[in-house]
Amino acid sequence: MNVFKLVIASLWALFAITPKVEASTANLYQVKSLKITTLSTMLANRGIGEWGYSALVEVDGRKILFDTGNRPQTVLQNVNDLKIDLSDVYDVILSHNHGDHTGGLVTLREHFAQLNPKALSNIHVGKGIFEKRAGRENSMLAMKKSLEQQGVTFSEYSKVTEIFPGVWLTGNVKRIHSERNWSGNGKIVTDHGHIEDNIPEDMSLVINTEDGFVLIAGCGHAGIINTMEHIVNNIHSNVISTAIGGFHLMNADDSHLAWTADKLKQFGLKNMMGAHCTGINSLYTLRSLLKSDRQHMVVGAVGDSFTLKDGVKAAAIAR
Questions:
Q1: Helix, strand, or coil here: 275?
Q2: What is the pTM of this model?
Q3: What tens-digit pLDDT sequence spans the chain (319 residues)?
Q4: Burial 244-275, CB ≥16 within 10 A → b, else e
Q5: What CATH class does 29-318 carry?
């Protein structure tokens, strides 16, 4: 009898708690305004193209720089050509340690700090970005030391974190599905020997909107589907309506692209600006499999943009 009462009490406790959990997730803050502009990738409508990625995220009056391109001067030249000011951007997100995403940081910081000492002074990174790599110097270590001497701060994230209302970082993404998209040649040095460098720090930006989540990735080394599952499992089971950036599908075969497209349908994807390592043919293949069109799924190019009001605005070269 006592056991029976205990079970009933436990069930009542479960039912009492569950509605509170649902309410807290259902009432996530939704951003009111959002514009994402590509500043670095291979194709360019204005400015110059390169093997790299960078985007300016303007959300509810706040500006965030996501990745900084490859060559030191590329993003700086492109923002000048696009008449974009980064002196009032305080926050920078680096998706991972590779130079094609971090190469412009020091130049941008030095240039815009002359206009505003706080410019690009808060750097957000995934845990693991500073790990020692075997056989090559991790440029992030020297960069961190130099920038910290200038008053720049670095924040590391291992878990999903809301950094501003409606603006989330994924932290480290669990690799559930086999979406292997790194070379496999790199090694991380640990106290117990070398382990494979699968770019553990890979981190994406997630923005909650009325139409669903907007995902911004640098290379998506954790895998686009792994990242999306991480989002719905750790933030909210919302649709992911938009994916922007690099998703490292350029070498994916037809069967993997078909599997990816099937999963993207389940997440409710409607818009995609596949830049950098996504792959031009892979983007077109996904567009066909998803029965989408050139108004909603395009190859990313410098100068293109996405807004909540107008959706995808492709650069002329990618229309």
A1: strand
A2: 0.91
A3: 454 444 444 443 343 333 322 334 457 999 999 999 999 999 998 899 999 999 999 999 999 999 999 999 999 999 999 999 999 999 999 999 999 999 999 999 999 999 999 999 999 999 999 999 998 889 999 999 999 999 999 999 999 999 999 999 999 999 999 998 888 888 999 988 898 889 999 999 999 999 999 999 999 999 999 999 999 999 999 999 999 999 999 999 999 999 999 999 999 999 999 999 999 999 999 999 999 999 999 999 999 999 999 999 999 999 8
A4: bbbbbbbebeeebbebbbebbeebebbbbbbb
A5: alpha beta
